[in-house]
Amino acid sequence: MTSHTDPSYVIFDGDTDGWAYQFMRGWKANERVDFNFFDAHSLDTMTSRAQSEDYVKQNLEERMRQSSAAIVIIGEKTKNLYRFVRWELELALDLKLPIVATNLSDSRQQDANCPPIIRDQCVVHVPFKMRVIRFALDNWPDEYRRMSAVDRGGGARHYGSQIYAKLGL
User: Fold this and answer.
1) Residues in domain Thoeris protein ThsB TIR-like (predicted)?
2) pLDDT, tens digit, for every residue of 32-71?
3) Burial of 91 (0-12, 13-18, 19+ CB in 10 A)
4) Distance of CA 96 to the CA centre of its chain
5) ∠ at Cα 38 (34, 44), nearest 5°?
């Protein structure tokens, strides 16, 4: 079983959803909370001189390969982003990295803000709540890796109400 202390790569819209990323950093910093991810967004030295998609993708890939999962924070504008967020999602798909889509809309399923590149892909969708994100990080990577290609072709995934009840949500 993957542990939520295994590193996860976080993808988000830095212009509008940085507050959610800061919440996640707060969860990570809190000694009483078991939550970990690679801080891939201390990449300003890379992004400030990123001239080409190939350069960016090469650097992002190095960081992503060290991760057990990708978390994408989905806000109102995420579906319209075609630079870094789309590139990161494309790489996660290419690397067959399990993706946890966390909805700032609080939707428990794929919602209208889901970026087209992962819409209807084998991605688990959860609301932006620490307990269910942690649950997804504990369970989704192993579940995803055990799936056959046919099963992965089954589209977007979500957890049932019994999981949320068990988590107290």
Assistant:
1) 12-106
2) 666 666 555 554 455 445 556 677 677 778 778 888 899 9
3) buried
4) 13
5) 140
Average pLDDT rounded to a whole number, residues 12-38 = 80
DSSP annotation of 13 = -
pTM: 0.86
Among the listed ranges 12-16, 107-111, 139-143, 155-159, which one has the minimum average pLDDT value?
12-16
CA distance readout (Å), 139 to 21, 30, 135:
21, 22, 6
Task: State the Cα angle at 67 between 102 and 19, rounded to 5°.
Answer: 40
| Residue type (1 letter), 35 | F
Q: DSSP states of 71-128 as a string?
A: EEEE-TTGGG--SHHHHHHHHHHHTT--EEEEETT--SS--TTS-TTTTTSS-EEEES
Tokens read off for 138: 């504990």
Backbone angle region of 13, left / alpha / beta, with phi > 0 → left and psi within -120 to 50 → alpha: beta
Is 8-166 a CATH 3.40.50.11200 domain?
yes
Give domain limits for the chain.
8-166
Do the beta carbons of residue 5 and residue 36 sit within 8 Å? yes
DSSP state of 64: H
